[in-house]
Amino acid sequence: MNDLGNGEGRGGGLRPAGWAGGGAGGGGKGSCSRPHFLRRGWGRRSPGRPDTLGPGQEKPTQPRPRRARSVAAMTEGFDCTKCRESLYGRKYIQTDGGPHCVPCYDSHFANTCAECKELIGHDSRELFYEDRHYHEHCFRCFRCDRSLADEPFTCQDNELLCNDCYCSAFSSQCTACGETVMPGSRKLEYGGQTWHEHCFLCSGCEQPLGSRSFVPDKGAHYCVPCYESKFAPRCARCKKTLTQGGVTYRDEPWHRECLVCTGCGTPLAGQQFTSQGDDPYCVACFGERYAPKCSGCGQPITAGLGGGKYLSFEERHWHQDCFSCARCTTSLVGQGFVPDGNQLLCRACSEADH
């Protein structure tokens, strides 16, 4: 009975690779993952170990003579479940279906490496990811051949890539610092270029622009205050920057609200106006202050400013409609006339006086 003693395999080894716990190491396209390791144990049946028990066995006692058949059954050989060869003195691997010798276990339970297509033996360190199994030495970056067994990786189009290779191939480069913009980090994109958030700075004050408005200018980027201070035109009247709109007068920029009549303060943008010296005036104020007066009606003559044509004679001026005979009111435009003191007479009226 002492020959039935268990060896080191008592309690069985670890489950076979096909039964190992845990799922895929997470990850997938564009995300970092870690593989899952499978571990196995092995046992050995050794004769001459009388007091060591196998799984589920109790310590045998001295059989009674009438139980001889049962005792004989217990002394039968400890064999491989598949090939039925004796496991005494040999390594074995315990499964729920019974003990297996190493060759039978490898042929029936070992997984095939997705990379080299060879069986992953019981004594190999095995990794699996998304239902694929690998030898430890086969689980490597597709591009640089670096081992991925103990570091994060990314699966891109069914290719396993280390972080460095993934970033080099698929991540953008920061326009400012030239470093890789790592997946998941905050970045800014403009005009087909990419920046780290902390690298996208105003070219003036060198402060991060972040989500603030900015103005591009010849490859540089400015926050609005810096751009206005450096480049924006300034109003000829108030000297403040023009951020939008505005009008041009005498080749100088003006705020629309700053271009007003010097006389009455009426806004002149979009209206006819003229100037006296450097001061702009609306038509009414200019006529009232500076325009010559018609010798006929006494009103200002604003010819060229919507006031129609006018005629002049001996430093006197008339609206075209007012240039007529002082007696018969016949228009003298294009006709001969005769001065009579401060009056102008047509020829007929002048001859009648004589």
Detailed description of the structure:
With 354 residues, this protein is of the alpha+beta class. Among the domains are: 77 residues, Cysteine Rich Protein; 61 residues, Cysteine Rich Protein; 43 residues, Cysteine Rich Protein (Ribbon). The longest helix is centred in the first third of the chain and has 8 residues. 22% of the residues are buried. The N terminus is likely disordered.
Q: How much β-strand is present in the residues?
A: 15-25%
CATH class group of the domain at 92-168: Mainly Beta
The largest pleated sheet is described as: 3 strands, antiparallel
SSE string: EEEHEEHEEEEHEEEEHEEEEHEEEEH
Terminal-residue CA separation: 174 Å
CATH topology assignment of the domain at 92-168: Cysteine Rich Protein
Give descriptors for this structure.
354 residues, alpha+beta, Cysteine Rich Protein, 3-stranded antiparallel beta sheet, rod-shaped
Structure summary:
By secondary structure, this protein is of the alpha+beta class. Helix content is 12%, strand content 22%.
Secondary-structure map:
Elements: E1 32-33, E2 36-38, E3 43-44, H1 68-74, E4 91-95, E5 98-101, H2 102-109, E6 126-129, E7 132-135, E8 153-156, E9 159-162, H3 163-170, E10 187-190, E11 193-196, E12 214-217, E13 220-223, H4 224-230, E14 247-249, E15 252-254, E16 273-276, E17 279-282, H5 283-289, E18 310-313, E19 316-319, E20 337-340, E21 343-346, H6 347-352
Antiparallel strand pairs: 1-8, 2-6, 3-4, 4-5, 6-7, 8-9, 10-11, 12-13, 14-15, 16-17, 18-19, 20-21
